[in-house]
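Our preliminary data section would be incomplete without showing what the modeling component actually yields. Below, a chain of 354 amino acids is followed by its predicted structure, encoded as tokens that our downstream tools consume directly.
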Amino acid sequence: MKSRENHKNKWMELPRIVDVGHGVIHDTGKVCKDLKLNGIGLIVAGSSTLKAAGKSAASSLEDAGYDVDTVVAKTPTLDEINKVETKACEAKISFLLGVGGGKSIDIAKLASMHLDLPFISIPTAASHDGIVSSRASIIREGKTVSEAAHTPLAVVADTEIIVKAPHRLLASGCGDIISNYTAVLDWDLAHRVRGEPFSEYASIISNMTARMLIESADTIKPGIEESAWNVMKALVASGVAMSIAGSSRPASGSEHKFSHALDEIAPKPALHGEQCGVGTIMMMYLHGGNWQEIRNALKLIGAPVNASELGIKEEYIIEALLHAHKIRPERYTILGTGLTREAAENVARITKVI
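Predicted structure:
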């Protein structure tokens, strides 16, 4: 009799090294040596982040015996990604390092995937979980879309640098992490209603990161390096949850749909994590959960909790709620096939978003 075979398989990409702490930008060269990387490194950074961290990373690489080249990146468009890829090919680059708050990291992440080269993430702000995840945001035809990419081979997060970024960015990162609460609820709902694959392990990690920030909300303060360390720890854990799940499901649900809808509708959107935080308040209400706890935590952290604090007119909040279910329609959430205008106005008013 033949033995039963297990045909299940799971491919997970996780960072091999996560270096978080004071002054760790000076470990960049050592990290690359520990990863057995050879050849020339290309630092992809914005003009300001090149000064804030890129030059220190380059010095560390040179001290470790690497040749280093740099390229200044702007918006995450196909043209910018092609520019980085062309530079990498011409200079015979062996690995890429994205240095920045998100845009430079996304550009380097996608370029490295297209070129099949190792990639290292060096965040200068803890503004969202994309700095650790296997997803990248890119602008296509005037719209921001999320695309699959490789998980960073390593993350070097210097809290001495991150704490100097505007507190608004750190608060935005908290909003992105706290939104894991409703993302997991949506994922579980899709599993029960649509039979979508669900990972208990990934969901537990994702929920844990949100709970950790909510319980320590009163300690997330401007200029406190411990705050930056706690948020970065949560962002890394959230990225790991996505890697385990093989998708962004543990960290992206109806609240992210709302945020992406606002990006399309509002003339001047707020930061991604800020919008996700406000979306989480409303989506938790729809799930019948403790939306007041989420609102209170965001207020303690200093993140927006309503339209006025987002700097977005109330009418755009309602329109985004009505349009949100059309964003990634294959991803089932509590929004189902859409809210009525009356329901959208009710949820926004009851949760004090408008």
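The two ends are 67 Å apart (CA to CA). The CA atoms of residues 110 and 228 lie 26 Å apart. Preliminary results of this kind motivate Aim 1 of the renewal.
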